[in-house]
Specification:
mainly beta; three-stranded antiparallel beta sheet; 8 strands; globular
Length: 121
């Protein structure tokens, strides 16, 4: 496992094909745990979680996570780009309330440790 945030949170990924008329693709495999060693080079692929062709989650040495495929650094209330987050289970995805990562973490990312989460891409 790689330590992405200095803490970890199991995440289930939801993929929606926006505007294509296709149904949601819901990941039913094992949960993903994001990790990255402290002070590891965030520009290296081994220190990124490449979820799709356009969503590569990483973290620099401070601040929050961001999508290095689309952003050069973490941006307050916007990062990671093209992601929405909710607490809960993918089995209940229609009733979940998705929001940006910072709001989801209640401005305290360590509080997400051990919490089940769903990531909407």
């Amino acid at each position: 496992m790689r330590s992405l945030m200095g803490f970890c949170c199991p995440v289930v990924v939801l993929l929606f094909m926006a505007g294509t008329g296709e149904a949601a693709t819901i990941w039913t495999g094992p949960s993903t745990v994001f990790t990255k060693p402290a002070f590891a080079d965030w520009t290296q692929p081994e220190n990124q979680d490449r979820l799709t062709d356009n969503v590569w989650i990483t973290r620099q040495d401070s601040m929050g996570i961001y999508n290095i495929k689309q952003e050069t650094f973490y941006t307050h209330n916007d990062s990671p780009a093209d992601t929405e987050w909710a607490y809960g289970s993918a089995a209940n995805w229609p009733s979940l309330t998705f929001t940006n990562w910072e709001a989801w973490a209640s401005n305290f990312p360590p509080g997400t440790v051990g919490q089940a989460a769903v990531l909407h891409l």
